[in-house]
Amino acid sequence: MDNIKTRRFIAFIANLYFKAQIFFLFLLLIYLFYQFLFLERIGYEEADKYNFFTNNIIIFSALLISCLTYFFIEKDSIKNNYFLIHFSTIFSLFLLNLLLEIRSSNFLPDNRIVQFEKKGVIWDNRTRNEVISDLKTETGEKNIYKGTNPGGFIVGNIAQKIDFETNITPFSNISNSTIVHCNESGIWRSYKSDKFGFNNPENLIKKESKFNLLLLGDSFTEGMCVDTKNDIGAKLRNLNYNVLNLGKAGGGVLFAKARLREYKHAYNFKPEFVIYLFYSINDVTDTLREYNHPFFQKYLNDKQFSQDLKNKQDKIDIFWKRFFALTSKADFLKKYPALKKYGQYHTSPAKDPNHKFSLKKILLLTNIRAFIHDNLIAQISNRKSNEKKKQLDILKKVFTSFKAEVNEIDSKTKLILVYLPSQYEIINKKLYLRKEIINLTNELNIDYINIYESFIKMNINDLFDYGLPGHYSSEGYGHLARIINQHLLEKYGN
Questions:
Q1: Which residues lie across from 180 on neighbouring strands?
Q2: pLDDT per residue over 341-381, tens digit each?
Q3: Which run of H or of E encompasses 369?
Q4: In the structure, what pLDDT confidence band is assigned to residue 464 with cuts at 50, 70 and 90?
Q5: Residue 284 · residue 390 · CB < 8 Å
Q6: Domain-embedded: residue 114
Q7: For the chain, how many structural domains are there in total?
Q8: Concatenated DSSP letters for 191-259?
């Protein structure tokens, strides 16, 4: 009799358990399908949509099916056993997910602001708009503006999303102005832009120098988050090089090639070397986005295409002033989340931990689902392998075109690719696309400098502020400049 009561009790609990899960999962999947249909509107691309579908809809659908299966089992004893197995499995997954979340919370260092404050840094919590306003008041200068992210503006189709009318696509900042760009270490950094909106001093040419270098790349090249006197351009100038810096935050190889086409004859400067600083953690993704965008395809496939930007700086300045006026409104930023996704405004890190976000990750089995997606679904579908091959094919095509663009300056002008390792790559001694990039540069006969080999021998605190992730520190850029200098002198002499 007791066994019968026990089985009935288990059956009652099982029915409640599965019905509650089915109800919850059904509502969740409706919400996820609704989100999936509108992903493109908020800035998601095909790869993002695929990952969202597999990591959310497929996994939760599989869980829903496992719950529905219970009601198709006829034999009570099997149903009860199924319930006990299902419940113990789900409970174990939740427990494991909780432990992973606790581990990740403990493993991750404190918020960036807290870490710097522990080192005695007084963090400047002002917004960039507040900094600009204060600087205008303190200095009496009017030409103080935000740093721009043209690459993100283009690939994010921002103009179309916000109905921003324009007949030009800028590649640089507002000219002859103070550009406030970044606060990564507690202090807001800025530089004075040149006549075309790039980070260069007034006098590019010294009477005596080793070589003329033209720098291209993203924020590491532009000099984001570091003092002007300590960025890579300044460090190389201190080593007696003439340096023209066309670096720009946001964007990959194709955007760099486009800037080279627009501005290679804008300055009275003939480079002997074009040095591309390749930060692969960002540059690969950015290059894939650019390759799939019709605007950048023009620069890849049409050798004659140009916007003649060097003669339109007045229009570029007007463009950004209009855009900044529009996007300085808080309500406007909330309305268009793609602005944040594509780097069109800066937000400082929150000082307090996000407990709501952690709770959401626990309840939705986020860590477990990520593991299943990355290690099972991606492997079964062979997507990782296919994506890597696609990446390398696109990089080869773009670098081939990039090298041809460099050779149009002068047949003797040489392209050098410098691989910039991230803090993660250095600490974990695992370089992203290491062999592939070496093989690619060898195949295309592009000179290659792998900074990683030197950086892993150095103290991480000498490369990054307090060893934390982000852009290189002043010392880090100094090491980078000396490695480039050594390579140029040993290989090309002077």
A1: 146, 190
A2: 787 876 666 555 566 766 777 777 777 777 776 666 555 55
A3: helix 366-372
A4: very high
A5: no
A6: no
A7: 2
A8: EE--TTSSS--S----SS-S-EEEEEESHHHHTTTS-GGGSHHHHHHHTT-EEEE---SS--HHHHHHH
Q: How many CA atoms lie within 13 A of 267 on its CB side?
A: 27
- What are the pLDDT digits (tens) for 301-344? 999 999 999 999 999 999 999 999 988 887 888 888 878 878 78
Whether residues 253 and 338 fall in one domain = yes
Please give the Cα distance from 392 to 223 (Å, whole number). Answer: 28
Nearest 5°: the CA angle 479, 481, 483 is 70
Q: What pLDDT is stored for residue 355 in this prediction?
A: 63
Does any domain span residue 341?
Answer: yes
pLDDT at 233: 96
Has residue 116 been placed in a domain?
A: no
pTM: 0.81
* Strand partners for 178: 144, 192
CA 287/CA 255 separation, integer angstroms: 8
Do 387 and 462 reside in the same domain of the chain?
Answer: yes
Q: Residue 474: which domain range?
A: 128-492
Cα distance between the two ends of the chain: 97
8-state DSSP, 451:
T
Please give the C-alpha separations between residue 453 and each of 219, 224, 235, 347, 415, in angstroms, as whole numbers: 22, 24, 20, 34, 20
Query: CB-side exposure of 69: number of CA atoms within 13 Å?
Result: 14
* Shared-domain flag, residues 175 and 40: no
Task: Read off the tokens for 65.
Answer: 């099916």
- Across-strand partners of 130? none
- Do 355 and 287 lie in a common domain? yes
Q: What is the Cα 462 distance to its own chain's centre?
A: 23
Is 78 in the same domain as 200?
no
In a domain, 446, yes or no: yes
- Please give the Cα distance from 403 to 139 (Å, whole number): 44
Domain boundary residue, one of 107, 138, 160:
107
Alpha carbons within 13 angstroms on the beta-carbon side of residue 252 total 22
Contact between 239 and 279 under an 8 Å Cβ cutoff? The reply is no
User: Domain holding 247: CATH number?
Assistant: 3.40.50.1110
Give bridge partners of residue 380 from the DSSP assignment: none
Q: Which residues of 134-143 are buried (b: 16+ CB within 10 A; e: fewer)?
A: ebeeeeeeee
Count the alpha carbons within 13 Å of 186 in the hemisphere toward its beta carbon: 17
pLDDT computed for residue 350 by the predictor? 57
Last residue of a domain, one of 74, 107, 140: 107
Say whether both 330 and 470 belong to one domain: yes
To the nearest 10°, report the CA torsion of 47, 53, 56, 60: -160
